[in-house]
Write a structure and sequence with these properties.
Helix content: 10-25%
Number of strands: 7
Order of helices and strands: HEEEHEHEEE
CATH class of the largest domain: Alpha Beta
CATH superfamily of the largest domain: 2,3-Dihydroxybiphenyl 1,2-Dioxygenase, domain 1
Number of helices: 3
Radius of gyration: 15 Å
Strand order of the largest sheet: 4-7-6-5
CATH topology of the largest domain: 2,3-Dihydroxybiphenyl 1,2-Dioxygenase, domain 1
Structural class: alpha+beta
Distance between the termini: 28 Å
Largest sheet: 4 strands, mixed
Shape: globular
Mean pLDDT: 89
Strand content: 25-35%
């Protein structure tokens, strides 16, 4: 992440996460936690220095690094698109459910997934 406020805005306004905590730690650092509606939480950490800044958006080496599970794929897919989220392709059916890939404002790739009933959550 390059900027706390941009990341908070994307997480809360676009992905509809809740801001749990935003504490100033001094020296330009903040402890920022956001949570999905299902209660899972993320800690948003700002990159510091050239090495970390170079890695922003590529922490998973180009692979999908984050998986956002939903109980209503089409509701969330259309909601995110209406808020400006760009998906890499059309939603597709996989052996475990419905999925589409999008990138956050830093370029990190996410799967938006609705698992089929009876699937244990283990992805291919």
């Amino acid at each position: 992440m390059r900027d706390y406020n941009e990341a908070i805005d994307f997480s809360t306004r676009i992905l509809d996460f809740r801001l749990l905590e935003d504490t100033d730690l001094g020296g330009g650092k903040r402890w920022v936690r956001v949570a999905a509606t299902n209660g899972a939480a993320l800690l948003l950490v700002k990159a510091v220095g050239d090495e970390q800044l170079t890695a922003v958006g590529n922490q998973a080496g180009g692979r999908v690094g984050f998986f956002l599970h939903t109980d209503d794929f089409h509701r969330d897919y259309h909601c995110y698109r209406s808020r400006g989220v760009v998906f890499e392709g059309e939603p597709r059916r996989a052996s475990y459910g419905t999925v589409a890939v999008f990138a956050d404002l830093a370029g990190n790739r996410w799967d938006l997934i609705e698992m089929d009933a009876g699937v244990d959550g283990a992805l291919e």
